[in-house]
Automatic annotation (TrEMBL):
InterPro entries assigned: Anticodon_Met, Met-tRNA-synth_bsu_C, Met-tRNA_synth, Met-tRNA_synth_2, Methionyl/Leucyl_tRNA_Synth, MetRS_core, NA-bd_OB-fold, Rossmann-like_a/b/a_fold
Motif 'KMSKS' region, residue range(s) on this chain: 300-304
Major place of residence: cytoplasm
Co-factor(s): Zn(2+)
Reactions accelerated catalytically: tRNA(Met) + L-methionine + ATP = L-methionyl-tRNA(Met) + AMP + diphosphate
Any one GO CC term of the record: cytoplasm
Protein EC: 6.1.1.10
Keywords: Aminoacyl-tRNA synthetase, ATP-binding, Cytoplasm, Ligase, Metal-binding, Nucleotide-binding, Protein biosynthesis, RNA-binding, tRNA-binding, Zinc
Function: Is required not only for elongation of protein synthesis but also for the initiation of all mRNA translation through initiator tRNA(fMet) aminoacylation.
Protein species of origin: Mailhella massiliensis
Domain TRNA-binding, first and last residues per copy: 553-652
The organism's place on the tree of life at top rank: Bacteria
Gene name tied to this protein: metG
The name this protein goes by in its record: Methionine--tRNA ligase
Amino acid sequence: MKSYYITTPIYYVNARPHLGHAYSTIVADTLKRFHRMLGENARMQTGTDEHGDKIVKAATAAGVSPQAFVDDIAGVFRDLWPRLGIENDGFIRTTDPAHKKAVQVLLQRLYDKGDIYFGEYGGHYCYGCERFYTEKELENGLCPQHQTKPEYISEKNYFFKMSKYQDALRQHILDNPDFIRPERYRNEVLAMLEGGVLEDLCISRPKSRLTWGIELPFDKDYVSYVWFDALANYITALGWPENENDESGAYKTFWPGEHLVAKDILKPHGIFWPTMLMAAGLPLYRHLNVHGYWLVKDTKMSKSLGNVVDPLKAAEHFGLDAFRYFLLREMNFGSDASYSPEAIITRVNADLANDLGNLFSRVLSMNAKYFGGKIPALGEQLEADDILSEATDNGAANFVQLFGELRFSQALDALWTPIRAMNKYVDEQAPWALAKKGETERLGTVIRTLLENMYKVAYLLWPVMPGASAAMQAQLGRPQPPLSEDALNDVLRYRMHLRTGMEIASASNLFPRLEMEKEEAPAKPKKEKKAAPKEAPKEEAAPEAKAPIEFADFQKLDLRVGHILSAKQHPNADKLLCFEVDLGEEKPRQIVSGIAAHFKPEELAGRKVVVVANLPPRKLRGVESQGMILTAEFGDSLALLSADAPAGSSIA
């Protein structure tokens, strides 16, 4: 059986888990489930990183010892994952005795090989990142991650000869194009390697400055640099080095595996870790999969800004399966995405309540009404039935392919194509009309065709929404089948999976619509009416001006020049036009605008316009809009704002 090993970063326990932690871990869980569905021996690993300066500072602030502090926060992380539907196979802590011993073995191996040496170094040290930065890496003299001025520290330390492996790592990346993905992050690492001589890595901290760490096996006056300690977890969690040569052990079974990280820790995983493995004579990982940030109001989450999202509260409020679906569907893997309650409600109502939930509700209700809740026989099939089943077959195949490429949003969109087609099929075939005319055989074929296609979709959604998927399969009279390659191939290959005459659910309400909570405006105090002076002059009311805004509010707008590639009438609304607009990105954006009363579509292709590019996607009468085209009103007329600049140019 083929093995698959996926890891999350081990999370630093100086603070409690937030949405970013949850996203990485849910994606890893989803990938593990997906590969189990492919019939593979899949393992998912997560854990906590518990050494370093920040832990000591956080523990001191909390008035407890570092060990007591990390025990508490590690427990919070460990307890959270099952409540988010996550089934991790292991949970490693860097304070585990076995991990500490294994790190010392790795350090000693590199020291004995001559790849660790003692020297003196002066550099810009960021306590937030717990690493030294070169002048070139700083941004205006500040840490690029924390935007704080690092402290210049000069001290004697141990160094890993990372520069020795620069050319070998560069060649490996060139020879293996998908080693780091998406491509933009591969190019970023290559730029680091090709930008000059790679510096050696300081891998120790003197005990005179820090004692909370793993002691170096060859010098008891120093502890290991936290990143050197943390990165080793991916193999120590598999029992390395104790089982390094055991063909049946976890290390040989699962390594090399795949890593899942956020873009802020690209360099440690893309350069430090593979060079460490090369030096130790160990195989490199298969893939480094890098995702973007979740932004709140277009700003990275930060405790200081007070915009950190509690993932458990969000999952409990919106529903666990809906929350998981939103995270996978909303973010294009590798890019940043915006989180807001409005975005979740819009996505859940459009995709889950209106599309999938409505489909299950109406079809199961009609089956109960017309066939007593029993699965009808399949009669003669017409072209419309074959077209629907073919759409489902194609959507299912595309889903599997795209999901395996970590293109989760596109994979789910591919699976929603047949879901929408099924709802359209219901409207076109009109089962209620067939029942009224007494065309029972045709009615049975229509309902059975829908039920079979619904089952295929329900089965494939298991990695993303395990609870809802299992419930939908049960509603259709099928328990979750054993996870195997044969089971998946059967679902993809065949169109008949349900048993004629079996009684199934008569109703479904898995995805109720969500409503936006309205904040009640505070009651205004009543003012006493005063009699106006008898001869007070009357004045014309001045036009009401909009309240002034701060310049920082204006800076939040991402205004760009867009080039309209095509324009057409909205299929469901006379007042709306649908555009494909080039904003200088990898692919054009779809934008819907309510300007059909003022412009003909054929007049607009080729025009340059101004677009608000950082609005969250919204569906307008069933078509998603990914931005807003700006216009100016004068009287009853409307004009498009334009700019004579290349597509994608920023307007400031």
